[in-house]
Amino acid sequence: MSSILTDIDLDTMLLLLPEILMLLGIVTMILIPNLGDATMRIPLTRTRVPILIGGTRSEYNNDPRLPNLIACGVLGLALLASIVFLGEEGDVGNALHVNEFSRLFTLLFTSALLLAALATSTRMPARPKATPPLDSDSDEIVDSKVAALIDNRRQVDFHILLLTTGLGMSLMAMATNLFMLFVCLELASLSSYVLVAFHKESDVGGEAGMKYFMVGSVVSAIGIYGMSLLYLWNGSLDMADLASAWSAMEGNDSLAIVGVGLMMVAFGFKVGAAPFHLAVPDAYSGASSPIAGLLATASKAMGFVALIRLLLIVTMPPSGQAIWMLSIALIAVLTMTWGNLAALTSDNPKRILAYSSVAHAGYMLAAMAAIGSGLADPSTSSMIVTAVVFHLLVLVLFKFGAFLVLSMLEAEGKGHRIEDLHGLVRREPVIGVAMFVFMLSLAGVPPLSGFLSKLLMINGIVSVSAGTGAVTSTTVVDWAGGVDPLFWLAVAIVVNSALSLFYYLRIGLVMFFESPESDSGLSKAPSLRLAIFACAFLTLLFGIGPMSEWLLDVVTSAVDTMMGL
């Protein structure tokens, strides 16, 4: 019996290896910086024994660079474990199920978190040789020394929050129970609220964090209330039980529909969908660029995982569900249009990318709406979900890559004005060209990966609505009247993508043709530069070609596993 239990424990540990590594990383960062030479006197004696915690720290665990090294190492190992055990499958208790789908998103989350950790080493550098200010120092030098000491002291806090966010995201992707899903979602969300406001010495950072927290708290309360209604309706929050009850539901049960609708409000905020996105631009512009990149990629992917599980597993009867199809279609068009129009009027690169992120949420929601129309067969539904997941994966490359470039500008106190990008190609030719590649991919210009992911989503929507037009129509008006409304979602994506070209190309124009405010190069930051080059190279590599076909095969296999095909 003991050997059987040992085997089960070992299997479970292997299934949860990335999460165990992140948990160990958190514990390590709590313990190691506090190790010292403190001793304790045994009562009634003069004998003192070491207690290890407290006292004077050694040269090694007193290094402020240590938390970043631990976080990068742990995330790198978690990323490797996600790749190695990508095909493993099994249950962990009654609320978690590990399969190829969940592990693919763990890979996405750890990749984004690793990029954030690498960028933070430049955005919030640790300086081992920082010294306290002297009375003879000028005010400027005093401020610089104090800022360096503050950055050193908060290294541990920042990287613990980073790993906690990753732990919540990864566990959420495996949840098979709505309560477990929501708890993990909030674990990641609460950590991200603090990360947004982490640079509290900046007024804009504190304001952004407070807005993000207040709006996030309200929508979370709405989502939890919706979940409680589902529990009252069904008596269980297990997704399989809810799916069975939903399929057997006769007519429209108001308790179930209102419960799902309230949860969609919460998940709509997580993905940045309009009109629940109002705190998103402020959060992006107030947070440091690495954290803004994390919100735009990993956090958005987390929201879509929750949305996919709610809509495709719980509320998707065989014939589709017209109620949520129509509501998501309207939200999708509103989201992509609002995001692109708002980005056109902004002069802050981070706000432009924030509204761009809102628009991309609209594109993916449009694809999701097509699945619930009742016209999509299982293979077409799988194709559409594959397109959405593929887009979320490659978005980490060109969206986070753009924020990495802004991180380099933030290291010198810039990056919040469009003028800060003037002449970037002259100052740093390779970095400027990489930024232009990211902008073209965000716009969906072929043959980059952003074009391929949009093409796949449009193709899925058109495939669902194919054959619905009046073939014998003599006028365009007659044909348009006979086309299924889903077709116009594909048209909306194309029109909005064309609209987005204006602000993406505007960034390219100022980088190439405007004169820079300074002729000096950016900070060296070798690890950050390497990350930018890798993102640009993979953006090109996962465009139209053999590597994109390989990635699509991986995504298709993962989606089929999730959908039981």
Task: Furnish the topology, listing elements before pairings.
Elements: H1 2-15, H2 17-31, E1 39-41, E2 48-50, H3 66-84, E3 90-92, E4 96-98, H4 100-123, H5 139-153, H6 155-174, H7 178-196, H8 203-234, H9 239-248, H10 254-271, H11 280-286, H12 289-314, H13 322-344, H14 349-371, H15 378-410, H16 424-427, H17 429-443, H18 449-465, H19 476-482, H20 487-513, H21 526-541, H22 546-563
Antiparallel strand pairs: 1-2, 3-4
Helix pairs in contact: 2-3, 2-6, 3-4, 3-6, 4-6, 4-12, 4-15, 4-22, 6-7, 7-8, 7-12, 8-10, 8-11, 9-12, 10-12, 11-12, 11-14, 12-14, 12-15, 13-14, 13-20, 14-15, 14-18, 14-20, 15-17, 15-18, 15-21, 15-22, 17-20, 17-21, 18-20
Polypeptide structure, described:
The structure is a single chain. The protein is an all-alpha fold. The chain has a domain of 248 residues. The strands form two sheets. A two-stranded antiparallel ribbon has the order 1-2. It has a two-stranded antiparallel sheet with strand order 3-4. The longest helix has 33 residues. The protein is globular. The N terminus is likely disordered.
- What is the count of helical runs? 22
The biggest sheet amounts to: 2 strands, antiparallel
Give me the count of strands.
4
Content-based structural category:
mainly alpha
Distance between the termini: 36 Å
Shape: globular
- Our estimate of the beta-strand percent is under 5%
- Quaternary arrangement of the chains shown? single chain
- Radius of gyration, in Å, reads 25 Å
Query: What sequence of helices (H) and strands (E) makes up the elements?
Result: HHEEHEEHHHHHHHHHHHHHHHHHHH
Q: Helical percent range?
A: over 70%
Low-confidence stretches: 1-7, 469-474
Q: What is the typical, i.e. mean, pLDDT?
A: 85
- The largest beta-sheet arranges its strands as 1-2
